Amino acid sequence: MNNELFEEIINNINKNNGLTKKTSERLVNNLIIDKFALDNFSKQLNFIKDNFSICPICNYYQIKNECLICSDETRNQNVICVVASQLDVNNIEKINKYKGLYHVLGSEINLNKKRSPSEINFESLLSRIEKNTELILALNATFEGELTTNYIYQLTKNMNINITRIAKGIPMGGSLDYMDETTLESAFKNRKKYEV
Amino acid sequence: MNNELFEEIINNINKNNGLTKKTSERLVNNLIIDKFALDNFSKQLNFIKDNFSICPICNYYQIKNECLICSDETRNQNVICVVASQLDVNNIEKINKYKGLYHVLGSEINLNKKRSPSEINFESLLSRIEKNTELILALNATFEGELTTNYIYQLTKNMNINITRIAKGIPMGGSLDYMDETTLESAFKNRKKYEV
Asked: Glycoprotein as a keyword (chains A, B) (predicted)?
Protein backbone atom coordinates (compact mmCIF):
# COMPACT_ATOMS: atom_id res chain seq x y z
CA MET A 1 0.00 0.00 0.00
CA ASN A 2 1.26 3.43 -0.93
CA ASN A 3 1.17 4.82 2.58
CA GLU A 4 4.52 6.61 2.48
CA LEU A 5 2.87 10.03 2.42
CA PHE A 6 1.13 9.31 5.69
CA GLU A 7 4.39 8.05 7.23
CA GLU A 8 6.22 11.12 5.98
CA ILE A 9 3.73 13.48 7.61
CA ILE A 10 3.98 11.56 10.88
CA ASN A 11 7.77 11.72 10.80
CA ASN A 12 7.62 15.46 10.18
CA ILE A 13 5.11 16.09 12.98
CA ASN A 14 7.03 13.74 15.26
CA LYS A 15 10.09 16.03 15.16
CA ASN A 16 8.33 18.25 17.70
CA ASN A 17 9.33 17.99 21.33
CA GLY A 18 7.02 15.95 23.49
CA LEU A 19 5.33 13.99 20.71
CA THR A 20 5.87 10.27 20.51
CA LYS A 21 5.45 8.41 17.24
CA LYS A 22 2.13 6.97 18.46
CA THR A 23 0.84 10.39 19.55
CA SER A 24 1.82 11.87 16.18
CA GLU A 25 0.02 9.05 14.36
CA ARG A 26 -3.18 9.59 16.34
CA LEU A 27 -2.95 13.36 15.87
CA VAL A 28 -2.42 13.13 12.10
CA ASN A 29 -5.25 10.60 11.80
CA ASN A 30 -7.51 12.98 13.69
CA LEU A 31 -6.54 15.86 11.41
CA ILE A 32 -7.27 13.78 8.31
CA ILE A 33 -10.69 12.53 9.37
CA ASP A 34 -11.86 15.76 11.02
CA LYS A 35 -11.71 18.84 8.77
CA PHE A 36 -12.92 21.03 11.61
CA ALA A 37 -10.01 19.94 13.81
CA LEU A 38 -7.61 20.61 10.93
CA ASP A 39 -8.91 24.14 10.40
CA ASN A 40 -8.83 24.82 14.12
CA PHE A 41 -5.23 23.62 14.34
CA SER A 42 -4.25 25.85 11.41
CA LYS A 43 -5.91 28.77 13.14
CA GLN A 44 -3.91 28.14 16.33
CA LEU A 45 -0.66 28.01 14.37
CA ASN A 46 -1.46 31.30 12.63
CA PHE A 47 -2.36 32.85 15.95
CA ILE A 48 0.98 31.77 17.44
CA LYS A 49 2.82 33.09 14.39
CA ASP A 50 1.08 36.47 14.51
CA ASN A 51 1.22 37.05 18.25
CA PHE A 52 3.95 35.12 20.02
CA SER A 53 7.67 35.71 20.02
CA ILE A 54 10.57 35.26 22.43
CA CYS A 55 11.66 38.01 24.81
CA PRO A 56 15.21 39.11 23.89
CA ILE A 57 15.96 39.72 27.58
CA CYS A 58 14.64 36.67 29.46
CA ASN A 59 13.71 34.26 26.61
CA TYR A 60 10.15 33.83 27.88
CA TYR A 61 7.10 34.39 25.68
CA GLN A 62 6.27 37.80 24.32
CA ILE A 63 2.75 38.54 23.15
CA LYS A 64 2.59 41.36 20.62
CA ASN A 65 6.25 42.06 21.42
CA GLU A 66 5.60 42.53 25.12
CA CYS A 67 7.16 40.03 27.53
CA LEU A 68 4.59 38.57 29.91
CA ILE A 69 7.14 38.72 32.74
CA CYS A 70 9.58 41.58 32.05
CA SER A 71 6.82 44.07 31.22
CA ASP A 72 5.19 43.54 34.62
CA GLU A 73 6.52 46.41 36.74
CA THR A 74 5.04 45.02 39.96
CA ARG A 75 7.60 42.22 39.88
CA ASN A 76 10.79 42.44 41.89
CA GLN A 77 13.39 43.48 39.31
CA ASN A 78 16.28 42.41 41.55
CA VAL A 79 15.52 38.68 41.64
CA ILE A 80 16.21 36.48 38.62
CA CYS A 81 15.17 32.85 38.64
CA VAL A 82 17.21 30.79 36.16
CA VAL A 83 15.32 27.89 34.55
CA ALA A 84 15.95 25.54 31.64
CA SER A 85 12.73 25.97 29.67
CA GLN A 86 9.74 28.26 29.21
CA LEU A 87 7.65 25.34 30.48
CA ASP A 88 9.37 25.67 33.86
CA VAL A 89 8.26 29.30 34.04
CA ASN A 90 4.68 28.20 33.33
CA ASN A 91 4.89 25.68 36.13
CA ILE A 92 6.41 28.09 38.67
CA GLU A 93 3.83 30.74 37.75
CA LYS A 94 1.08 28.26 38.61
CA ILE A 95 2.04 28.32 42.31
CA ASN A 96 1.58 32.10 42.16
CA LYS A 97 4.16 32.79 44.88
CA TYR A 98 7.29 33.88 43.03
CA LYS A 99 7.21 37.54 42.03
CA GLY A 100 10.66 38.12 40.55
CA LEU A 101 11.97 37.86 37.00
CA TYR A 102 13.15 34.81 35.06
CA HIS A 103 15.98 33.83 32.79
CA VAL A 104 15.22 30.91 30.46
CA LEU A 105 18.41 29.20 29.31
CA GLY A 106 16.57 27.18 26.64
CA SER A 107 18.67 24.14 27.43
CA GLU A 108 21.01 22.68 30.02
CA ILE A 109 24.59 21.63 29.44
CA ASN A 110 24.33 18.11 28.03
CA LEU A 111 27.50 16.50 26.78
CA ASN A 112 25.65 13.46 25.39
CA LYS A 113 23.57 15.70 23.18
CA LYS A 114 26.65 17.80 22.34
CA ARG A 115 25.34 20.84 24.17
CA SER A 116 28.52 22.29 25.63
CA PRO A 117 28.54 25.53 27.67
CA SER A 118 29.53 27.46 24.55
CA GLU A 119 26.22 26.49 22.88
CA ILE A 120 24.20 28.13 25.66
CA ASN A 121 23.93 31.88 25.86
CA PHE A 122 25.18 32.51 29.41
CA GLU A 123 26.40 35.97 28.34
CA SER A 124 22.86 37.34 28.28
CA LEU A 125 22.35 36.10 31.85
CA LEU A 126 25.60 37.67 33.05
CA SER A 127 24.73 40.98 31.38
CA ARG A 128 21.55 41.18 33.50
CA ILE A 129 23.32 40.79 36.84
CA GLU A 130 23.74 43.95 38.87
CA LYS A 131 25.23 44.43 42.31
CA ASN A 132 21.97 43.88 44.21
CA THR A 133 20.71 40.98 42.07
CA GLU A 134 19.61 37.73 43.72
CA LEU A 135 20.04 34.72 41.46
CA ILE A 136 17.78 31.73 42.17
CA LEU A 137 19.01 28.62 40.37
CA ALA A 138 16.00 26.43 39.57
CA LEU A 139 17.35 23.90 37.09
CA ASN A 140 16.31 20.27 36.93
CA ALA A 141 17.50 17.88 39.64
CA THR A 142 19.28 15.79 37.02
CA PHE A 143 22.93 15.32 36.12
CA GLU A 144 22.60 17.97 33.40
CA GLY A 145 20.83 20.35 35.77
CA GLU A 146 23.53 19.91 38.42
CA LEU A 147 26.26 20.48 35.84
CA THR A 148 24.61 23.67 34.61
CA THR A 149 23.88 24.92 38.13
CA ASN A 150 27.51 24.42 39.03
CA TYR A 151 28.68 26.11 35.82
CA ILE A 152 26.58 29.20 36.52
CA TYR A 153 27.82 29.25 40.10
CA GLN A 154 31.42 29.23 38.87
CA LEU A 155 30.66 32.07 36.45
CA THR A 156 29.01 34.25 39.08
CA LYS A 157 30.57 33.40 42.46
CA ASN A 158 33.02 36.32 42.32
CA MET A 159 30.32 38.86 41.46
CA ASN A 160 29.46 39.28 45.11
CA ILE A 161 25.76 38.66 44.61
CA ASN A 162 23.28 36.50 46.48
CA ILE A 163 23.02 33.08 44.80
CA THR A 164 20.51 30.51 46.02
CA ARG A 165 19.13 27.29 44.64
CA ILE A 166 15.74 25.69 45.15
CA ALA A 167 15.56 22.95 47.80
CA LYS A 168 16.02 19.30 47.02
CA GLY A 169 14.11 16.87 49.20
CA ILE A 170 11.16 14.52 49.40
CA PRO A 171 8.40 15.61 47.01
CA MET A 172 4.86 15.99 48.36
CA GLY A 173 3.18 12.59 48.47
CA GLY A 174 6.53 10.79 48.34
CA SER A 175 6.99 7.59 50.34
CA LEU A 176 10.32 7.37 52.13
CA ASP A 177 10.79 3.70 51.28
CA TYR A 178 10.52 4.44 47.55
CA MET A 179 12.93 7.41 47.64
CA ASP A 180 16.36 7.03 46.02
CA GLU A 181 19.48 7.53 48.12
CA THR A 182 20.52 10.88 46.64
CA THR A 183 17.10 12.40 47.32
CA LEU A 184 17.11 11.02 50.84
CA GLU A 185 20.61 12.34 51.47
CA SER A 186 19.61 15.82 50.21
CA ALA A 187 16.50 15.75 52.36
CA PHE A 188 18.55 15.02 55.50
CA LYS A 189 21.25 17.53 54.62
CA ASN A 190 18.68 20.27 53.97
CA ARG A 191 16.56 19.57 57.07
CA LYS A 192 14.99 22.65 58.70
CA LYS A 193 13.90 23.52 62.20
CA TYR A 194 10.36 22.26 62.74
CA GLU A 195 7.90 25.13 62.87
CA VAL A 196 4.16 24.88 63.44
CA MET B 1 0.52 37.07 34.62
CA ASN B 2 -1.58 37.38 31.49
CA ASN B 3 -1.03 33.85 30.29
CA GLU B 4 -4.60 33.10 29.29
CA LEU B 5 -3.76 33.21 25.60
CA PHE B 6 -1.23 30.43 26.04
CA GLU B 7 -3.74 28.37 28.04
CA GLU B 8 -6.39 28.97 25.40
CA ILE B 9 -4.15 27.69 22.61
CA ILE B 10 -3.29 24.62 24.67
CA ASN B 11 -6.95 23.89 25.34
CA ASN B 12 -7.72 24.21 21.64
CA ILE B 13 -4.85 21.95 20.58
CA ASN B 14 -5.69 19.54 23.39
CA LYS B 15 -9.09 18.81 21.81
CA ASN B 16 -7.32 16.51 19.36
CA ASN B 17 -7.44 12.79 19.96
CA GLY B 18 -4.35 11.32 21.53
CA LEU B 19 -2.93 14.54 22.96
CA THR B 20 -2.72 14.94 26.72
CA LYS B 21 -2.64 18.38 28.30
CA LYS B 22 1.09 17.99 29.03
CA THR B 23 1.85 16.90 25.47
CA SER B 24 -0.11 19.86 24.09
CA GLU B 25 1.78 22.23 26.37
CA ARG B 26 5.15 20.92 25.22
CA LEU B 27 4.05 21.01 21.59
CA VAL B 28 2.77 24.59 21.77
CA ASN B 29 5.93 25.67 23.60
CA ASN B 30 7.99 24.10 20.86
CA LEU B 31 5.98 25.87 18.16
CA ILE B 32 6.42 29.23 19.92
CA ILE B 33 10.17 28.98 20.42
CA ASP B 34 10.99 27.35 17.08
CA LYS B 35 9.70 29.26 14.03
CA PHE B 36 11.04 26.56 11.74
CA ALA B 37 8.98 23.91 13.52
CA LEU B 38 5.93 26.16 13.29
CA ASP B 39 6.32 26.65 9.54
CA ASN B 40 6.91 22.96 9.03
CA PHE B 41 3.79 22.10 11.00
CA SER B 42 1.74 24.56 8.92
CA LYS B 43 3.10 22.96 5.79
CA GLN B 44 2.03 19.50 6.96
CA LEU B 45 -1.48 20.76 7.72
CA ASN B 46 -1.77 22.33 4.28
CA PHE B 47 -0.51 19.15 2.70
CA ILE B 48 -3.13 17.11 4.54
CA LYS B 49 -5.83 19.58 3.52
CA ASP B 50 -4.84 19.53 -0.14
CA ASN B 51 -4.27 15.81 -0.53
CA PHE B 52 -6.09 13.69 2.02
CA SER B 53 -9.76 12.86 2.26
CA ILE B 54 -11.90 9.96 3.41
CA CYS B 55 -12.98 7.19 1.06
CA PRO B 56 -16.79 7.24 0.72
CA ILE B 57 -16.82 3.44 0.44
CA CYS B 58 -14.53 2.15 3.21
CA ASN B 59 -13.78 5.33 5.23
CA TYR B 60 -10.02 4.86 4.95
CA TYR B 61 -7.70 7.59 3.64
CA GLN B 62 -7.91 8.78 0.08
CA ILE B 63 -4.95 10.60 -1.45
CA LYS B 64 -5.94 12.85 -4.34
CA ASN B 65 -9.40 11.25 -4.19
CA GLU B 66 -8.06 7.74 -4.65
CA CYS B 67 -8.50 5.29 -1.79
CA LEU B 68 -5.24 3.62 -0.82
CA ILE B 69 -7.08 0.33 -0.31
CA CYS B 70 -10.14 0.24 -2.57
CA SER B 71 -8.21 1.41 -5.64
CA ASP B 72 -5.79 -1.52 -5.35
CA GLU B 73 -7.17 -4.12 -7.77
CA THR B 74 -4.77 -6.83 -6.62
CA ARG B 75 -6.66 -7.01 -3.32
CA ASN B 76 -9.29 -9.66 -2.75
CA GLN B 77 -12.55 -7.79 -3.30
CA ASN B 78 -14.59 -10.48 -1.55
CA VAL B 79 -13.08 -10.08 1.92
CA ILE B 80 -13.97 -7.10 4.09
CA CYS B 81 -12.23 -6.57 7.41
CA VAL B 82 -14.31 -4.40 9.77
CA VAL B 83 -12.27 -2.17 12.12
CA ALA B 84 -13.05 0.72 14.43
CA SER B 85 -10.49 3.27 13.24
CA GLN B 86 -8.20 4.14 10.33
CA LEU B 87 -5.33 3.59 12.79
CA ASP B 88 -6.31 -0.08 12.97
CA VAL B 89 -5.95 -0.35 9.19
CA ASN B 90 -2.46 1.19 9.46
CA ASN B 91 -1.52 -1.38 12.08
CA ILE B 92 -2.92 -4.36 10.16
CA GLU B 93 -1.20 -3.17 6.98
CA LYS B 94 2.13 -3.22 8.82
CA ILE B 95 2.03 -7.02 9.12
CA ASN B 96 1.64 -7.10 5.33
CA LYS B 97 -0.34 -10.36 5.33
CA TYR B 98 -3.95 -9.30 4.86
CA LYS B 99 -4.85 -8.63 1.25
CA GLY B 100 -8.59 -7.96 1.37
CA LEU B 101 -10.56 -4.74 1.77
CA TYR B 102 -11.51 -2.83 4.92
CA HIS B 103 -14.50 -1.13 6.41
CA VAL B 104 -13.70 1.56 8.99
CA LEU B 105 -16.65 2.16 11.30
CA GLY B 106 -15.08 5.32 12.75
CA SER B 107 -16.28 4.37 16.21
CA GLU B 108 -17.64 1.48 18.24
CA ILE B 109 -20.97 1.40 20.02
CA ASN B 110 -20.33 3.13 23.34
CA LEU B 111 -23.29 3.82 25.55
CA ASN B 112 -21.22 5.83 28.05
CA LYS B 113 -20.18 8.23 25.32
CA LYS B 114 -23.72 8.23 23.92
CA ARG B 115 -22.71 6.45 20.73
CA SER B 116 -25.70 4.24 20.07
CA PRO B 117 -25.92 1.96 17.00
CA SER B 118 -27.94 4.63 15.20
CA GLU B 119 -24.96 7.02 15.35
CA ILE B 120 -22.75 4.59 13.45
CA ASN B 121 -23.22 4.12 9.74
CA PHE B 122 -23.73 0.35 9.55
CA GLU B 123 -25.85 0.83 6.39
CA SER B 124 -22.77 1.51 4.28
CA LEU B 125 -21.23 -1.75 5.53
CA LEU B 126 -24.39 -3.74 4.75
CA SER B 127 -24.60 -2.21 1.27
CA ARG B 128 -21.15 -3.63 0.47
CA ILE B 129 -22.02 -7.21 1.37
CA GLU B 130 -22.62 -9.57 -1.54
CA LYS B 131 -23.37 -13.27 -1.54
CA ASN B 132 -19.73 -14.39 -1.63
CA THR B 133 -18.40 -11.79 0.83
CA GLU B 134 -16.33 -12.88 3.83
CA LEU B 135 -16.62 -10.52 6.76
CA ILE B 136 -13.71 -10.46 9.23
CA LEU B 137 -14.65 -8.69 12.45
CA ALA B 138 -11.51 -7.08 13.90
CA LEU B 139 -12.84 -4.72 16.55
CA ASN B 140 -11.14 -4.02 19.86
CA ALA B 141 -11.19 -6.72 22.57
CA THR B 142 -13.05 -4.34 24.89
CA PHE B 143 -16.62 -4.18 26.10
CA GLU B 144 -17.44 -1.70 23.33
CA GLY B 145 -15.71 -3.85 20.72
CA GLU B 146 -17.62 -6.96 21.85
CA LEU B 147 -20.91 -5.06 21.77
CA THR B 148 -20.25 -3.79 18.24
CA THR B 149 -19.04 -7.20 17.02
CA ASN B 150 -22.21 -8.79 18.35
CA TYR B 151 -24.36 -6.05 16.81
CA ILE B 152 -22.84 -6.56 13.36
CA TYR B 153 -23.23 -10.31 13.74
CA GLN B 154 -26.94 -9.86 14.49
CA LEU B 155 -27.32 -7.60 11.44
CA THR B 156 -25.60 -10.01 9.09
CA LYS B 157 -26.18 -13.55 10.39
CA ASN B 158 -29.14 -14.18 8.07
CA MET B 159 -27.28 -13.01 4.97
CA ASN B 160 -25.73 -16.42 4.51
CA ILE B 161 -22.18 -15.10 4.30
CA ASN B 162 -18.97 -16.23 5.94
CA ILE B 163 -18.41 -14.23 9.15
CA THR B 164 -15.20 -14.68 11.17
CA ARG B 165 -13.54 -12.74 13.95
CA ILE B 166 -9.86 -12.40 14.80
CA ALA B 167 -8.55 -14.68 17.54
CA LYS B 168 -8.42 -13.69 21.19
CA GLY B 169 -5.60 -15.18 23.23
CA ILE B 170 -2.26 -14.55 24.89
CA PRO B 171 -0.38 -11.74 23.10
CA MET B 172 3.21 -12.34 22.02
CA GLY B 173 5.54 -11.77 24.98
CA GLY B 174 2.70 -12.17 27.47
CA SER B 175 3.36 -13.93 30.78
CA LEU B 176 0.64 -16.34 31.81
CA ASP B 177 0.74 -15.27 35.45
CA TYR B 178 -0.01 -11.65 34.48
CA MET B 179 -2.89 -12.53 32.14
CA ASP B 180 -6.46 -11.64 33.19
CA GLU B 181 -9.04 -14.41 33.49
CA THR B 182 -11.06 -13.49 30.39
CA THR B 183 -7.97 -13.58 28.18
CA LEU B 184 -6.89 -16.88 29.69
CA GLU B 185 -10.35 -18.35 29.21
CA SER B 186 -10.39 -17.24 25.54
CA ALA B 187 -6.92 -18.66 25.03
CA PHE B 188 -8.01 -22.07 26.34
CA LYS B 189 -11.30 -22.06 24.47
CA ASN B 190 -9.58 -21.13 21.19
CA ARG B 191 -6.72 -23.62 21.56
CA LYS B 192 -5.50 -25.16 18.30
CA LYS B 193 -3.84 -28.42 17.39
CA TYR B 194 -0.10 -28.07 17.84
CA GLU B 195 1.67 -28.00 14.49
CA VAL B 196 5.40 -27.76 13.92
From this structure: no
